[in-house]
Amino acid sequence: MVTLQQIAFHAGCSLATVSRVLKGEGPVSDEMVRRVRRAAAELGYRPSPATGRATNRSQPVVGVLVPSVTNPVFAASLGGIQHRLQAANHGVLIAQSNYDPALEARAVRSLLEQRPTGLILTLCDAKTSEALSAALPPTVLLNNRPVARFAAAVTVDNYRAGFDLTRHILDHGHRRILVVSGHFRSSDRARLRYDGYLAAMQEAGARPMEAVEIPFVDGYENLDLATVLAQHRPTAIIASNDLLALGVIAALRREGLSVPDDVSVAGFDGIALGRLMTPTLTTISMPDGDMGLAAAALLLDMAENASGCRHLNLDCRLYAGGTVRHLA
């Protein structure tokens, strides 16, 4: 049986440092974390039942934090994560933040109590999240850009996606384009998509509009756009995700407006519901399942092989559905 003393000798560090790395507690440099985990992997170390509260389980686990388990986007990512981890004989522990930055640190602490092999985190904003202030095991950010301390991430270019979708609508003759979004403080992805919209509008010489921000949770079904429509009179609306785009379409119909004859609508994500409706939803399709697979594979490589952190940026693509029309 491999001991912590053997790992310390192999890594060229103290026993206390090995303990801090394997428990994910206390200050340790990134280089030392890699050395200790590489030594543990090379020696074939596996935690004993006495090393943590939850180590009496039959298999190691990975902790995953997402904003919502019911959103099809994160459900697809979770499916990819679980598929890859099951192949590696790892279980999955899931927590959700409900798009609330204040809940993230608490959710991560709950996951850490189970002594996971590592963490996969989708945060409201990785730059400001308190969840990243703790001593964490190997961690991969999913849907968030990497930050200085956590350089491992799997993303798409949300800024470019916002730019390309806006450019598509501009090419259809629209100039009065409104963005309806979940609160930017709850999603840096939504903020990046809006930034891409601003850049495309500026490039086209069109005047951008201030985004209408609503809650991500319980904000879609009863969306009221009457005041916004009267004030801005948009010919097209971009929603920050597809579920919100469906809420926008329903709100427009309650106002007696047709999509796309009266107002064009587009979203982001490429969920199946958008392809089942008539007309089909114009959207930017995201590789959510593949992103989950990639995040899980990257985390396992870091945790078990002590590989370096990487930033993987996957491609997304425009799906030109029928909810955006050419203006005469």
From TrEMBL:
Give the originating organism: Ensifer adhaerens
Q: Key word DNA-binding present in the record?
A: yes
InterPro entries of this UniProt entry?
Answer: HTH_LacI (IPR000843), LacI/GalR-like_sensor (IPR046335), Lambda_DNA-bd_dom_sf (IPR010982), Peripla_BP_I (IPR028082)
Taxonomic superkingdom: Bacteria
Q: Which Pfam families match?
A: LacI, Peripla_BP_3
* Alphabetically ordered keywords of this record: DNA-binding, Plasmid, Transcription, Transcription regulation
Q: What PROSITE patterns would the database entry show?
A: HTH_LACI_2
Name all HTH lacI-type domain ranges: 2-56
Q: Which CDD domains match?
A: HTH_LacI
Q: What protein does this entry describe?
A: Substrate-binding domain-containing protein
